[in-house]
Amino acid sequence: MAQILAPSVQWQLRTKQTSMSASSITPKMWSSLLLKQSSKVAVKSSAKFRVLALKSDGSTINRMEELLNLDVTPYTDKIIAEYIWIGGSGIDLRSKSRTISKPVEHPSELPKWNYDGSSTGQAPGEDSEVILYPQAIFKDPFRGGNNILVICDAYTPAGEPIPTNKRHRAAEIFSNKKVVDEIPWYGIEQEYTLLQTNVKWPLGWPVGAYPGPQGPYYCGVGADKSFGRDISDAHYKACLYAGINISGTNGEVMPGQWEYQVGPSVGIEAGDHIWCSRYILERITEQAGVVLTLDPKPIEGDWNGAGCHTNYSTKSMREEGGFDVIKKAILNLSLRHNEHISAYGEGNERRLTGKHETASINTFSWGVANRGCSIRVGRDTEKQGKGYLEDRRPASNMDPYVVTSLLAETTLLWEPTLEAEALAAQKLSLKV
């Protein structure tokens, strides 16, 4: 459950004659001291203004919380825009705030901005300016009102996308007419693990030890089976408030691990929504004093890893005869297995072992209702002859811009040779 922020300044009460602890002063004595405004009492802080913090019976009235919840809308048209971008590791999120003169409805209304790329591992110190281009807007669930979260991508001053800007290439693929005409849908299942702050051990686990084996935790209920539900629920509501297309959430197989689903989303929107949802989750865990990890195998041994299964369909897959289109897509995916694996997240080899509901990283496979395959096709899709496929290979730390655009590129734009296609079809027992 999120913790109320405590004041960072330690207030001290000093008198010329005696000193006593704040806890030894009764409420009546506090009232007397405050009313008299005696010269014997001085409240000191590093700030240039004076704040009187009332203490009574061990509790604190936290004035900071009132300011954090302050609604400035009746007093000004100005809003706060939180510019969010991806840092040098390709997975870390960064953000900073600026004041905008009035509410906006579209990213084009927002100014470009810059940041120090040498401090994020994205530019040299002698030429450190990186330019942020606003690309997507979401409502800010933390500040409320007309304030916004802004998903940005990053460019050099000359207008070239920097290496960690994967959105730029994804936008090019999604703007291709062949892709646009197929209206690609994505449903992304983001798994994550919550860790205790000081020991970096999963939430709910005994420190230095292990809980009972997996089995009762998946979608479990109870204090001995569910750890971090308040964080999951807070994140769910915050995403709905922000306008993220979140469609559900559940406790996962490993205790302290959770999942939420975003979609169906069309094209580049899928990546924007996942990145913003990750940012909101980071902020919530920050407030709760819990560490978020997207590591694909946070605990070695007989424990499930964390993935980001990506459900995908095109217009042709969703129409009559779509199952044949799905099988053709699977054939293409099999021929580019290595390219996809190399782009599906760091450390994924520790997760894709052929155990714990995963396929081997070295072997491509597909099956109906088989969660141990690279690509799973649902029973309903087989029965109806149309629908979607699920790519179970992406790791929890994958870049959604990369994964979604690569799926579209491989299945809609890339064409294998006839020889390779025939061999792959025979190997996978596909008739297309």
From TrEMBL:
Keywords: ATP-binding, Chloroplast, Ligase, Nucleotide-binding, Plastid, Transit peptide. It is an enzyme of class 6 (ligase). PROSITE patterns: GLNA_1 (PS00180), GLNA_ATP (PS00181), GS_BETA_GRASP (PS51986), GS_CATALYTIC (PS51987). The keyword Translocase does not apply. GO terms for molecular function: ATP binding; glutamine synthetase activity. It catalyses: L-glutamate + NH4(+) + ATP = L-glutamine + ADP + phosphate + H(+). Residues 79-159 form the GS beta-grasp domain. It comes from the Eukaryota. Its EC number is 6.3.1.2. The keyword Mitochondrion does not apply. One of its GO terms (biological process) is glutamine biosynthetic process. It is found in: Plastid, Chloroplast. SUPFAM superfamilies: Glutamine synthetase, N-terminal domain (SSF54368), Glutamine synthetase/guanido kinase (SSF55931). GO terms for cellular component: chloroplast. Its main location: plastid. Residues 163-432 form the GS catalytic domain. Belongs to the glutamine synthetase family. Homooctamer. This is Glutamine synthetase.
